[in-house]
Design a protein that fits this description.
By secondary structure, the chain is α+β, with helices and mostly antiparallel strands. The chain contains 14 helices and 17 strands. Strands 2-1-5-4-3 form a five-stranded antiparallel β-sheet, sandwiched between helices. A five-stranded antiparallel β-sheet has the order 7-6-10-9-8, with helices on both faces. A five-stranded mixed β-sheet has the order 12-14-15-17-16, covered by helices on one side. The two termini are 73 Å apart.
């Protein structure tokens, strides 16, 4: 910008100075020419007056007089009679001069007028400026006095004037350009500073300020700019702070949030929603909601909301990318300053898959408990009624029925005891007794307890427990219960003559315990539900061998109480392996 202004300024200065110079030169040349003309006329009239004062004009030595006046006037003096004959000349020999009667200035002078002419002189061979005045005697024109100057003299003076004017023009231009540069720089530097400040603001550096030591409009502009910049910085900081807090709140929410515009295009999606649908905001921003949540029921509810109905809550199921049950809450987005205008809809998504799963588990648990308790109770009640009806008098039959009642009562007791154990483990409000557990000693005690059962089924117990295992901290009774349940299960579901291998070792700060059998194995479809309460792979077989359906559920919750992990691997007819990992210190 400075360059453009300076170029325009230079052009204007050049134009102004050039025009001024031309006009000045023309004016000076005109004034000088007029001055020369007036001087020549004045001198001519003085000579004329002298000549008219002499009565006998022709008796005078006109050549000598012409030479005399030429020296004083620095001009050529010529005297011509009324017939055009040259009677005297200061510069040229009279014999070489021809008749001047037809000279234009002479013609006018003979007629009584002032003769003025600029022309080439045949006598001198120069361009001359002539002034001719008539000489009168007795009211009769008897001669003409002519005074002349070479135009070269005038041109020389004009050239000198031109040089002086040119020098003045150049000097004035140099001064004007220097002062102009300083002035243009003084004007454009603040503009540059403002431009740089606005550039910084556009790049996010709010609060930029400029300082001009002037009291003119630029100073006022700078002051107003600084006020605007300060207010802008304050406003932007407030907006950024508010946006940061809002974003932090939305990002920290465990529920998914999706905001859509009036065209059902996604404007915003928080990390929880990204996790639910396994997408990223960058990939779905601007896309239709149905491209993300493929559920027409939700689309219908959103459309109802756009149509003016009240906010709604729906429950939907999605199957892509994975199955989930979602509670969807929809609410219109309204402008604070114009509540009647809707700019979109906010969708709050609550993943209730686990809640629904727990509800199903609770229902299944209640149903299973009812069923597990009802079966032995029904059996007991039936046999008691049979005994009441007279079977008690038959000793053999009575003893058989009483033995069955005793077995069913034992079953009930086992179920209740397991439920109490499970409840005790799950109850986080209980104060759990923690102690140092000698792992090798505890495993040895459990194996001694299980020894008789394994002998009855001719099951070989293979002990691969490392010696000198580190102690762990926890409830000793629970630890033994976990081992008993796992080893007992392995023995129960392993055919006669099979093997149960017990391995224990420490690695990376964890105690690893593996219980592997060569039993019937478990189909892979049952492995994910194996630790649920009352879940049985083969219900008839489980009841036949005396299982309550709670053993592995108890194992799982004991492992969790130790902050550990449990995994299971199994193949049909190849056996099953449970691996428990417990932290040595927790």
């Amino acid at each position: 910008m400075q360059k453009k202004i300076y170029i325009v300024f230079v052009i204007l200065v050049l134009m102004g100075i050039t025009i001024t110079g031309i006009l000045s030169l023309g004016l000076l040349k005109g004034n000088y020419a007029q001055s020369v003309e007036e001087r020549l006329i004045a001198n001519a009239k003085l000579i004329k007056n002298f000549m008219e004062s002499n009565d006998n004009f022709y008796d005078l030595n006109l050549d000598e007089i012409a030479t005399k006046y030429s020296q004083s006037t620095q001009a050529r003096i010529t005297f011509i009679d009324k017939d055009g004959v040259v009677r005297g000349d200061s510069d040229v020999d009279l014999e070489t001069l021809e008749n001047h009667k037809n000279r234009p200035e002479i013609k006018k002078a003979i007629k009584g007028d002032l003769g003025i002419s600029k022309r080439h002189s045949e006598s001198t061979g120069l361009d001359m400026f002539y002034i001719a005045v008539p000489v009168e005697m007795n009211n009769e024109i008897v001669a003409v006095t002519r005074i002349s100057l070479p135009l070269d003299y005038v041109n020389t003076v004009n050239k000198t004037l031109f040089k002086y004017i040119l020098a003045s023009v150049l000097a004035g231009m140099a001064v004007a350009l220097l002062l102009g540069y300083r002035y243009v720089k003084g004007v454009t530097e603040p503009i540059k500073a403002l431009t740089e400040a606005t550039k910084n603001i556009s790049q996010g550096n709010y609060g930029e300020r400029v300082y001009f030591n002037t009291d003119d409009e630029l100073g006022i502009l700078a002051n107003n700019f600084n006020i605007m910049s300060e207010k802008l910085s304050y406003t932007i900081n407030q907006l950024e702070d508010r946006n940061t807090k809002n974003k932090a709140i939305l990002t920290s929410m465990i529920n998914g949030i999706i905001a859509i515009d009036n065209n059902k295009k996604i404007m915003f999606i928080n990390p929880a929603a990204e996790s639910i649908f396994r997408i990223s905001e960058e990939d779905v921003r601007g896309k239709h909601i149905l491209e993300v949540v493929r559920n027409n029921y939700l689309d219908e509810e959103i459309q109802k909301l756009f149509s003016g109905q009240i906010p709604s809550k729906v429950e939907i199921e999605i199957f892509d990318p994975i199955y989930k049950t979602l509670a969807i809450y929809t609410n219109p987005i309204k402008l604070e300053n114009d509540p009647t205008r809707k700019i979109g809809v906010v969708i709050i998504i609550q993943d209730i898959t686990e809640i629904r799963k727990l509800e199903r588990m609770r229902k299944d648990f209640v149903a299973n408990v009812s069923h597990e308790l009802k079966t032995p109770l029904t059996s007991i009640k039936g046999f008691i009624e049979t005994l009441k009806d007279g079977a008690s008098e038959d000793k053999m039959l009575r003893d058989k029925f009483l033995n069955i009642i005793d077995i069913e009562a034992g079953r009930l007791t086992a179920i209740i005891e397991d439920l109490l154990v499970l409840s005790d483990i799950e109850n986080k409000h209980n104060i759990v007794k923690k102690e140092n557990i000698n792992v090798n000693k505890a495993i040895e005690e459990v194996l001694n307890m299980i020894n008789e059962l394994s002998k009855k089924k001719e099951i070989q117990i293979i002990n691969k427990v490392n010696a000198n295992l580190p102690d762990i901290v926890g409830n000793l009774g629970w630890f033994k219960q976990m081992l008993i349940n796992l080893i007992d299960n392995a023995i129960k579901y392993t055919p006669l003559g099979g093997q149960v291998i017990i391995t224990a070792y420490a690695v990376s700060g964890n105690l690893i315990i593996k219980i592997k059998d060569t039993g019937i194995g478990i189909d892979k479809q049952h492995l994910s539900r194996l630790f649920e309460r009352f879940y049985r792979v083969d219900k008839a077989r489980s009841r036949k061998i005396g299982g309550t359906g709670l053993g592995l559920a108890i194992v799982k919750h004991i492992v969790l109480a130790f902050n550990g992990k449990i995994n299971v691997k199994s193949e049909i007819d190849m056996g099953t392996e449970f691996m428990v990992s417990l932290p040595i210190k927790y």
